[in-house]
Amino acid sequence: MDNQKVALITGGGRGIGAATAKLFAQHGYAVCINYKSNSKAATSLAKEITAEGGYCITVQADVANEADVLRLFSTIDDKFGPLSVLVNNVAVLQTQSRLVDMSAERINTVLVNNVTSAFLCCREAIKRMSTANGGAGGAIVNVSSGAARSGSPNEYIDYAASKGAIDTLTKGLSLEVADEGIRVNCVRPGLIYTDMHSDGGEPTRVDRLKTKIPLKRGGLPIEVAEAIYWLASDSSSFSTGTFVDVTGGM
Ligand code: NAP
Known about the structure:
Elements: E1 6-9, H1 15-26, E2 30-35, H2 39-51, E3 55-60, H3 66-79, E4 85-88, H4 104-129, E5 138-143, H5 147-150, H6 157-176, E6 182-189, H7 196-199, H8 205-209, H9 221-232, E7 243-246
Parallel strand pairs: 1-2, 1-4, 2-3, 4-5, 5-6, 6-7
Helix pairs in contact: 1-2, 1-9, 3-4, 4-6
The structure holds NADP nicotinamide-adenine-dinucleotide phosphate.
InterPro entries: NAD(P)-bd_dom_sf, SDR_fam
Family: Belongs to the short-chain dehydrogenases/reductases (SDR) family.
Protein name: SDR family oxidoreductase
């Protein structure tokens, strides 16, 4: 693994994560595709990347679970060596609901999957990247959402609030590790065509709302992946604690 940069994409088997994993592989990164349960999607993506001449592994791990996160990072240590980039892409969405009908169980599921997971992955990445620990530095890109700004009333305030937490994590952590060779930035996608909207109970949500988007269309996973890649790459070397909205102007 001499000189090859290493990227971990959490939730990299499908949607925005899959487009990101593919893009990093095309740019020569050794890519770890993490997934939770859809091994078929992750394996098929890995085959595609390998067929294009890329280098990747797939690792099943529930990143909301601390023991799984430790296993995920030590697998990367063993198979690839030092991590250069972490993309915190995982999130879950529950069925559209007003807050008045939300159970504590639902709220906690959203927070642990969308927030705790990112904190745990950042912690393990920093241990390895920090120049204060003898690491070579690195870049973390968090995937938030335009929902952090809109609040998603009548649909999923819990999800929107979890993304607000990701924005705050980005800001605070970027300052905490700025002099340790680590940049921490964030991409906030808008309405993007992925399976996530089916989890929210409305598979055609992007098409229903696309006329409200100034660019008058939904976004594609690759359009988000390009922003993530830029923030992880040396092309954005003077940017940290910053946010790129990929929302079609919304
Ligand atoms: P998606 O198609 O639903 O894919 C989610 C991915 O996350 C899947 O690969 C899934 O694994 C994985 N995952 C979920 N929980 C996990 C866990 N605990 N541990 C490990 N993996 C887990 O989602 P997406 O639409 O691509 O969204 C990606 C990111 O963009 C999320 O942060 C989302 O909030 C954000 N975003 C999306 C939109 C949009 O319109 N799509 C808009 C704004 C922000 P399995 O494949 O194993 O199930």
